[in-house]
Amino acid sequence: MRAYLRAILVAGTALGVAGAAMAQSSSPFSGLFGGSSESEGPVALDVQVAGGDEGLTRQIRQSLLLTGALNEDRTTGQDVLAAARGDYARILGLLYDQGFYDGAVTITLDGVEAAEVAPLDAPAQVSRVVVTVDPGPVFRFSRAQMAPMAPGTEIPDEYATGEIAGTGVMRSTALAGVDGWRAYGHAKADVADQQIVADHDADQVDSRIALSPGPAVTFGRMSISGNQRLNERRLRKIAGFPEGERFDPQELDTVRQRLRRTGVFSAITLQEAETLSPGNTLDVDLAVVEQPPRRIGAGAEISTTDGALVSAYWMHRNLLGGGERLRIDGRIKDIGSETSDRDDELTIRLERPATITPDTTAYVEAEVAQMREEDYDEDLATLGFGLNHIFSDRLTADAALEYQYSRVFDANGRTDFKVLALPMDVIWDRREDQNNAKRGFYLSAEVTPFAGFEDTSSGMRALAEGRAFRSFGADDRFTLAGRARAGSVFGSELATTPRNYLFFSGGGGTVRGHPYQSLGVEEIAGPDGPIKTGGLSVASATAEFRVQVREKIGVVAFADYGQVWTGDAFGGEGDDHAGAGLGVRYDTPIGPLRFDVAGPVSGDTGNGVQLYLGLGQAF
């Protein structure tokens, strides 16, 4: 016997197939997803699948409306009957999705078939529900064909002769075909026709999907609505809508990302016109909703020897009506530190998006700071102008021109440092989650040529860092994480190099188990002995093993190592130290709350057990 099955693509994506069952459903694909785990309550639910396929049994149970109803204590006879009648279609849809087209489904309420009970005749109470499913044989493709396809279109490997003929595979294939043509510039590509012929004697499916590419399309005009404080001219500049260029859905995603980066909007909607305009152009409607422009925030970290760090900021996301962002940051650290006095920092930064290109942000930044280190005090002021360019959502670059003036007070008296610098950096971020990475990598490189004035040396400061993450086990329960960092100052004498250009090691950002910036060098002679400063070169490495023990709770074991040298290119004398410890992580919506306990493993800068509390992973 051959059953000729006509399927309809809903919105070009949803394939429908009819099958044998002991119930009727107007939409066998409704409710393919949902449900929850097995329920416990006054109504017993038993799911039986012929053949004993545990995986299929689990999927069916999780998809049932009955499971959800019982878990939510909706156990009246009317509730149970309504859920049971809806579950025929859900089960059939799940079977079709996995290639079972001869399935039979029965659902009994205390021995009575639910499909035979009228909605108004529901029993007052049900004590036992039995769901019995005979999936029948699995059907495979005797033919799997889709045409025409755009160049470069990638379709699921499962859509091939001999593979399981699930409706999910056919849906995904149709979507891939339409998306392929859209990526090729055919915005109105659609599914023109499709035929599915099921041979129930041979347990095979003949599938043919015909695509209608439609004409090649270019972007037309973009209309804008919803903006109140951000003027339209600047909004268009920020969006960078490619009017007149070949249609590409990726360009629309890029427009969304540019607008989202401003922080001005709480909602962004891009709607393609239903019909093409003359010349096969496609107009697009942009609707935005602005959010309150002002925002404040605060944070804190605590260490037993480094003391506390508190920070706060105030931000205006549309200062002059063109998406300009003004942010003022204040930070106080080393509060109660055993190794140094309190440090104060204040930074003011004004950014203007879409300067030169839609992906280039210009900024002006000013910073003042008072640093109270173990052997010296430093007052610092910096003023700079820079450009930040986003090449992609993974790759960014920054270049600036800045002037820095600092005064250092140590045992030798006062020393002034004046430099004109050109800091440049590149970041390549391939982490899947920046707050709690489980896989991917992160690479950064900084190069800062600087020219010194008066007694300040000239040279170049370079710093590179790499991080890598690899997860394994069920639900990525186990994660290996590593970080390596190396830097050096070239062409400059240590004593005449700005102190904030030098490198220390120790503390939560480098080597836990040792106090903050506890490892430096002692090259500068003072009246009462050498003065401790940072070195001209540094290298550090960190390894972590992270385990998720509960849905929101994780534990971490870690080891850190760092070394500082007196000379450039890792030359001269050097000292090293290492630390290790354990930590706990508690997941929150804004990142994991971190609590680490660490102690020294080697080196002479240790000072007992160190405790660290902060937000986010260590790296």
Textual characterization of the structure:
The protein is mostly beta strands and about 625 residues long. It has helices spanning about 55-65, 65-70, 75-95, 165-185, 230-240, 250-260; strands at about 1-5, 45-50, 105-110, 110-115, 130-135, 140-145, 190-200, 205-210, 220-225, 265-270, 280-290, 295-305, 305-315, 325-335, 345-350, 360-370, 375-390, 395-410, 415-420, 425-430, 440-450, 460-470, 480-490, 520-525, 530-535, 535-550, 555-565, 575-585, 595-600, 610-615. The chain has a 17-stranded antiparallel β-sheet that branches. α2 (about 65-70) crosses α3 (about 75-95). It is globular and about 100 Å long. Residues about 1-40 have low confidence and may be disordered.
Can you count the helices? 6
CATH class of the largest domain: Mainly Beta
Measured between the Cα atoms of the first and last residue, the distance is 63 Å
| CATH architecture assignment name of the largest domain | Beta Barrel
The helix-and-strand class reads: mainly beta
Instruction: Report the CATH superfamily of the largest domain.
Output: membrane protein fhac: a member of the omp85/tpsb transporter family
Beta-strand proportion: 35-45%
Q: Note poorly predicted spans.
A: 1-41
Radius of gyration equals: 32 Å
